[in-house]
Amino acid sequence: MPSEFDIIRQYFMLENSRDDVSVGIGDDAAVLSVPAGYQLVQSMDTLVAGVHFPLETSAGDIAYKSLAVNLSDMAAMGATPAWFTLAITLPDDDSEWLQSFSKSLAALAQKYNLQLVGGDTTHGPLCISICINGFIPTGTALLRKNANVKDKVYVSGTIGDAALALVAWQGQYLLRNDTTYYLNKKLNRPEPQVELGLLLRDYASACIDISDGLAADLGHILQESKLGATIYFEKIPLSNEFKLNVIDDNLAIPLVLSGGDDYQLCFTVRAEKQSVFEKIVNEKNIKVECIGEIESVKGLRCLLDNVEIDIHEAGYQHFSSD
Amino acid sequence: MPSEFDIIRQYFMLENSRDDVSVGIGDDAAVLSVPAGYQLVQSMDTLVAGVHFPLETSAGDIAYKSLAVNLSDMAAMGATPAWFTLAITLPDDDSEWLQSFSKSLAALAQKYNLQLVGGDTTHGPLCISICINGFIPTGTALLRKNANVKDKVYVSGTIGDAALALVAWQGQYLLRNDTTYYLNKKLNRPEPQVELGLLLRDYASACIDISDGLAADLGHILQESKLGATIYFEKIPLSNEFKLNVIDDNLAIPLVLSGGDDYQLCFTVRAEKQSVFEKIVNEKNIKVECIGEIESVKGLRCLLDNVEIDIHEAGYQHFSSD
Questions:
Q1: Chain A: nearest CA to B305, how far in angstroms?
Q2: Same domain, yes or no, for B72 and B95?
């Protein structure tokens, strides 16, 4: 079996490309330069086999998702991604698995000019933690707490696809065959909304990424901003593939409001900025949809045909007993 | 069972104290300021239950060690520790365990003015990853690659105590009772050499912390510096507790050279700086010992009674089949 050092050397010494990395992998720590006038934005997310992805998920998909969920946190802050560290716990030394994992990781990292600068390889049940770093011009981070009354509530992309793919994968729902590829891609290879996040620095008052479900994550914005909101279920963007498979509102509602794993952005825009914002995202061909409005009355209300939906679920929580 | 959010709120919202933390726990990412003229130093280490510590290790010891091994990486770079993120995977929600864990973590963090700024709580087999961040004045990081011929090789503290404690804990060696407390403390609560690391910015040419064993870690300095060294086994500092228990050189040699887990520093000092350096560490009451010298002939040689020891072991490696 190769040593820990061999694994790092063989699979994770990816291209050293960034000028702001003085020391990358191979010393006791990385030495990095944050540009003057910028703040460091740092986040860490863990994926555990059998909890955050089914055990049979491919190495390439696991690598992609591990990094994508972290990139999504950068997007939610409006940050430019820069570097990451990787802690990977492996049950064994499967060189084919490691090859696929590192190839997929490197491809996504390269797309965002993101450099792997350190980490740890350990032996145990499969678990991946990534700590990601990015920059923002000082004082421009998109926070959850700055929504205002009358701000418009937006989401990007389409909502509910990942949740639908998951229940199908778990055998709880039978998909039409010709949508399986599309939906599984949404679950396993979510596209982090980094470009939109950067744009939102100039337009959004508050922002979060949708990992735990729209209701729960918008709920965080409302809680931190000490406000409420009404959203309209009909306005929430759904993919054709979702609509083809889910006709019954009773199934659509939990998938869309509480499903999670979409890694789209949910954000608020001041009413006076709305038209300029929509013009710009149209020009850039970024899909966003206004789904409601911030209000002073606390709590989240979601209407369907003008009737309020009872939002039972608080979103997917790893320790929930539900 | 409490939700993921409850666990973070209840146990890990430690005191927010540092001025350079604009956003800590509670948003999609932390927002942090690196002071002008300084570089960011970042490292990540993982501890897996049953691999890096015996399953019966107390929550307080696990928390302490998880953070201490990361602080040790800061020490090895000469960095001032500042912030950390914590990814903790828990098999269940044991509030007593979590209480002890977070209390111990907070105490060590406070000692080094270190702030927890983010992380992730997940469900699965016990595993702790910490990503630590510190600063150094730009260009002053202590690297492995800058040792020079005739530099003196030093180690701090005493070597071999943690390895002895581990073999005793594993039932492979019978300790004298009155040394068990001392040795277990060395294994479970190693003292990161942060103060020494800061001092070494002005004196050391190369530096590493001893996590994998003196031979392996000094070996990294030699490999990166493309040089060799001779060290003298008699000069390696051993504790009285070690000497009381280990009389046979055949046991002492592997424990001291390959044992690992001591988290002392191994570093090189230019010959002309040696006397000033030793004067200063004496004044500061920091224990260091010169154990040998860097040479142009590659490889590590260790002499005992003028006879070269055969250094079989390459240090503790997690994937080693030995």
A1: 32
A2: yes
Assess contact for B113 and A41: CB atoms under 8 A: no
Taking only the tens place, the pLDDT of each residue in A8-38 is 667 776 665 899 999 988 899 999 999 999 9
Q: Can you list the alpha helix ranges (DSSP code H) found in B112-204?
A: 161-169, 177-188, 194-200
Q: Which CATH number does the domain housing residue B68 bear?
A: 3.30.1330.10
Q: Which residue of B has its CA nearest to A40?
A: B32
Phi, psi of B83 (to 5 degrees): -140, 160
The per-residue pLDDT for range A90-148, each reduced to its tens digit, is 998 888 999 999 999 999 999 999 999 998 888 888 999 999 999 999 999 999 999 99
Size of interface A-B (CB pairs under 8 A): 231
Q: ∠ CA A248-A263-A164 to the nearest 5 degrees? A: 25
ipTM of the shown complex: 0.92
CATH number (domain holding residue B284) = 3.90.650.10
Residue of B nearest to A8 (CA): B319
Residues spanned by the domain of B13: 4-137
E strand or H helix at A208, and its extent?
strand A204-209
Question: What was the pLDDT predicted at B322?
Answer: 35
**Does the model's pTM come out above 0.90?**
yes
Single-letter amino acid code for the residue at B321: S
Same domain, A99 and A218: no
CB of B22 within 8 Å of a chain A CB? The answer is yes
> B241 touching A, CB under 8 A?
no
Query: How far B29 CA sits from the closest chain A CA (Å)?
Result: 5
